[in-house]
Design a protein that fits this description.
- 30% of the residues lie in helices and 20% in strands.
- The longest helix is centred in the last third of the chain and has 32 residues.
- The protein is an alpha/beta fold.
- It has a 5-stranded parallel beta sheet with strand order 2-1-3-5-7, sandwiched between helices. Strands 8-11-10-9 form a 4-stranded mixed beta sheet. The chain has a two-stranded antiparallel ribbon with strand order 4-6.
- The radius of gyration is 25 Å and the shape is flat.
- Strand 9 and strand 10 form a beta hairpin.
């Protein structure tokens, strides 16, 4: 057995804000089919007993303190594994207005295990890698050194801090790193509001919703302009006009930096909406997923429930977004991998047909 498995690690798992795909795969790795316990891996619910912290899903304002609390309760030596692409970087939801980024925006990460969803084999491989880092940290501690000089903690930038308003504190970008966009002042930190500003009652108040009607051919250029100004995607919804049977799409954005400035001043903020009116089912609507990947569930919903012809979706479920069960596992794969799988299925089907034909001819000859 590899020397990295010289210990029997106890792991604790926390699901941050995932779609539950990676969450289920982490649990699958502990089942008898994949049997991570054959390596001595034990799942525990107590941070004080855990050696490895498995985190699925991205970090947002609500779960960031929880992730840090669990991490701080673990004893050294300890390791953190980011399970799945959302935990690694925010994934397809990285651009969403309420997503801060990957797990390393909250705590140092030692092993990154991408996937959408992550495979159970990848989870086990990541635990094996983490065990090797645990051995290194333990050796450093036995020598009187600091375990934080090993693994992800050695190069961690400290992550982000949240202000009292729930936004990332000044100096951190939308993904938790970098400064405010060029030409825009850095957002003020919580508590920097003028002394004469009355205290907020009830937290944030959305006092303005801006609606801009655009044509289908103008949609992408307006989305690009909003993105360039620092706006982040919130949601998209479709409506049917019962009077004439046409459809209406509303795309909602929020400028995080501008909102933070307004909240610090008077507790208000505005959201911006792009409205496409008078759509019929024969019109093609360009997907905005090349600018805002997190729009994919909304666009698939508009296609499946309303029959709208949304083209060039980055993640297209081909009308099966609401199908409860499928003959084959549904996953996000590249066109090359999809083509290879389809070719393999055709080759297998041809081989099976040939075998059936040979068996039928043999049976006929025997008769």
């Amino acid at each position: 057995m590899d020397h990295k498995m010289s210990r029997s690690p106890w792991v604790i798992h926390y699901d941050g804000s995932s779609c539950n795909g990676c969450d289920i795969e982490v649990l699958a790795s502990l089942t008898p089919l994949f049997d991570a316990e054959r390596f001595g891996v034990v799942n525990t619910g107590n941070p004080k007993h855990a050696d490895i912290f498995l985190v699925t899903g991205s970090v947002n304002a609500q779960n960031l303190p929880v992730v840090r609390q669990i991490y701080n309760q673990m004893l050294e030596p300890k390791c953190v594994v980011a399970c799945g692409i959302c935990a690694c970087s925010g994934g397809v939801f990285r651009d969403a207005y309420n997503v801060i980024g990957g797990v390393d925006r909250a705590i140092p990460v030692d092993v990154y295990a991408p996937g959408c969803a992550i495979r159970p084999e990848t989870v086990i491989d990541a635990i094996v890698e983490a065990c090797g880092i645990l051995d290194q940290k333990e050796a450093v501690m036995r020598a009187g050194g600091d375990p934080l000089t090993v693994g992800g903690a050695a190069t961690w930038d400290g992550g982000v801090e949240l202000g009292e308003d729930g936004f990332v504190a000044a100096g951190a970008g939308a993904d938790g790193a970098g400064d405010a966009p060029a030409g825009k002042p850095a957002a003020p930190a919580a508590g920097d509001a003028p002394a004469e500003t009355p205290p907020l009652q009830g937290g944030r108040v959305m006092q303005e919703a801006i609606y801009t009607t655009v044509g289908i051919d103008e949609l992408l250029s307006h989305v690009q302009a909003l993105k360039g100004a620092g706006a982040r995607f919130v949601q998209m919804h479709a409506e049917r006009n019962v009077d004439d049977g046409t459809y209406r799409l509303v795309y909602t954005f929020i400028n995080v930096h501008a909102a933070q400035e307004h909240i610090a001043q008077d507790g208000s903020y505005a959201i911006e909406n792009l409205v496409v009116e008078g759509i019929d089912r024969h019109q093609e609507i360009p997907s905005i997923s090349s600018y805002c990947p997190a729009v994919f569930p909304f666009e698939n919903e508009a296609h499946d429930l309303f029959g709208l012809a949304i083209t060039d979706m980055q993640i297209d479920f081909k009308g099966f977004f609401y199908q409860v069960s499928t003959a084959e596992p549904m996953s996000v794969i590249t066109p090359e991998v999809k083509a290879a799988r389809e070719k393999a299925m055709k080759v297998r089907a041809a081989a099976e047909a040939k075998a059936r034909k040979a068996a039928a001819e043999k049976a006929a000859a025997a008769a």
